[in-house]
Amino acid sequence: MKKIKTLGLARLRMDECFGFLKLIEAETANLPLQDKEETDSPSEINLADTMTVLEAKVNAFINAVNDFDAALKAPDSNPATPMTEATDDARDAAWRRTYNFVTAMGGHPDEDIAKASAGVKMLFDKYGEIPRLTQTGKSGFMHNLLQDLEAVEAEKRTAMNLDIWIANMRVKEEAYLAAATERTEANANRQIGITKTTREAAQNAYRSLVDAVNALTIINGDADYATFIDNVNAMIDRQTTISKARFTRAKKEEEEEEIPTPEA
Questions:
Q1: Whole-model pTM above 0.85?
Q2: Which InterPro entries match (predicted)?
Q3: Least enclosed by CB within 10 Å: which of 85, 102, 147, 203?
């Protein structure tokens, strides 16, 4: 009698586990889920009942895998996102106001101040219109721009009254970085929790499906389940080989690291 082998899903990497379950989902097409013609035959009534049970197991498994898939994707919402967006908008505004101020100061009646302002504007032009970049790109360019601005001679900054503008830009940039960090941590924590829960649910649904198929082969014989069982077992064998090879490789690397280096 054919039987699906055992595979320790919990030991698989996240991507391996999901990939394996998706392959199993595709294989469920080989299970006998089609409705049989109604009959009064006790044996066929019994078969119809077992198929109803199997179909429920398959549907539960597919739904669990879909939930696992959704959890692996980027989260749809994050309570820290609005604050991140707001602080990003604020630093954009700080950049634009400072840029406009520096540009206007280029027309200052004092020639030295006008010349200093032109030099500062060149620093802005060096990095382009930062607000048009991605959030991550903005942070890198803002960091460099702020360093360049703070490196301008103190006398020139004072003459232009530039320090207050630089300070405002830095405050807005640091506020964004803090909000972005909070968003990243919230994403990670939320993702870990949801992914763990949905993975466990998908694994349990897989085991339940396997148990059902193995039980039905005893009740109905394995003819209708042979293709599914053979294909699943082939995938289990392949995954077991991959896992064993990885374990052996890791063990070998660990042993090599423990070998003491001969003294010169």
A1: no
A2: DUF6261 (IPR046228)
A3: 147
